[in-house]
Design goal:
The protein has 348 residues and is of the alpha/beta class. It is 33% helix and 19% strand. The protein has two domains: 2-63, Phospho-2-dehydro-3-deoxyheptonate aldolase, domain 1 (Alpha-Beta Plaits), CATH 3.30.70.1140; 83-332, TIM Barrel (Alpha-Beta Barrel), CATH 3.20.20.70. The chain contains eleven helices and 15 strands. Strands 7-8-9-10-11-12-13-14 form an eight-stranded parallel beta barrel, surrounded by six helices. The chain has a four-stranded antiparallel beta sheet with strand order 2-3-1-4. Bound molecules: phosphoenolpyruvate (PEP) and manganese (II) ion.
Length: 348
Amino acid sequence: MLIIMKIDATRAEVDRVSGKVRSLGYVPHEIPGERRVAIGITGNRSKLDPGVFLNLAGVAEAIAVSKPYKLVSREMKKENTVVRVGDEEIGGHEIAFIAGPCSVESRGQIIEMAWMLKELGVKFLRGGAYKPRTSPYSFQGMKLEGLEYLAEAGNLTGLKIVTEVKDTATLPAVAAVSDILQVGARNMQNYSLLEALGTTARPVLLKRGISATIEEFLMAAEYILSGGNYDVILCERGIRTFEPSTRFTLDLNAVPIVKKQSHLPLIVDPSHGVGVWDAVPSMALAAVAAGADGLIIETHAHPGSALSDGYQSLKPSTLKPLMERLRRISEVMDRGFCAPVSPGAEVI
Ligand code: PEP
Ligand code: MN
């Protein structure tokens, strides 16, 4: 249920409604709007009677939310959510652009890549230190050592760090160095992890599971918001279909559908979505044209020798012309796009 407060409702009136919600055994979530405050109510007790709230001072309306997900839904909050990441944001005017290797492979690799990306105007650096791999014999990531190198790359360049958290055991270490915690597709329904992220003070980039419906995807995000962490960025990264010529099928249908159902920012990962590097630029451009709020793209200076996902990684020399085209398509979508640090600077 959603309680809409009157435009002139006082702080005390809002607090009294929240107190009433708590006294009934539910959890209130204050949602500040442009003109008035709303209070989302979650909990798994029996049906609530809207009449309980309607005669409290300052209450304008009590609305039942029809979707199974509540806090993530547009019914709860009409305005787009902008997730703040330090002095940057995701879901605002500018298309967010996250780039970097699939995995941190060495100190030199991640620092060199961070500087290359910085010069291109990129503000968010990705790189996995903990890698959940299909095969136990594949490279599992540099773990704590990888986190140290990521932190150093972030400190040196000022880039924001996006890295994957694989489980609750490593969450404190990963949260200590990351600006955004990535939840991988394989973990979208790891409910213990989602619950732990609900009480972690870090933005979360939640990837869609490879066989998850849009509703299941939004329900996974609901876990994090219902725990009290409202800074969730959704990420469409492709789903499994019967088509074997691409790694996954990038479900760009999900972009307008999710944007209609949810106020959360949604970015797209064309690298995993299509899985072959030369198809990544087309799908990146298509994602922005479809209305995505950002992109996450795998890049590697030497894709041929990458320890994971080299075949879907772009070289910085391919990334640069792509970014030029993304800038143009962002303009068509009335959005901004990151600018190079020193315009015209050559990338090695
Ligand atoms: C990744 O970003 O490298 C990754 C493993 O992604 P996903 O969880 O989408 O497979
Ligand atoms: Mn990868």
